[in-house]
Amino acid sequence: MTRKTSEMPKLKTKSGAKKRFKVTGTGKVLSAQAGKRHGMIKRHAKFIRNARGTTTLSDQDAIIIKKNFLPYA
């Protein structure tokens, strides 16, 4: 079966992005807090506590992620 010449192929989602980001129902992009891979011994308990869980990306960053890395989000 051949594809019509007027149809464009589907865009691929970047596999690294689908592991790192989640798009909510309202269109916001969630990601894990940065800076927690190593070096926690010199961090204050408040920093470690606040860096738990996920954070919401800014609007401009969310636009870039959805447009370039998650085309069907």
UniProtKB/TrEMBL annotation:
GO terms for cellular component: cytosolic large ribosomal subunit. Keywords: Ribonucleoprotein, Ribosomal protein. Signal peptide: none annotated. One of its GO terms (biological process) is translation. InterPro entries: Ribosomal_bL35, Ribosomal_bL35-like, Ribosomal_bL35_CS, Ribosomal_bL35_sf. GO terms for molecular function: structural constituent of ribosome. The keyword Cell division does not apply. It holds the Pfam family Ribosomal_L35p. Belongs to the bacterial ribosomal protein bL35 family. This is Large ribosomal subunit protein bL35. It comes from Hartmannibacter diazotrophicus. The gene is rpmI.
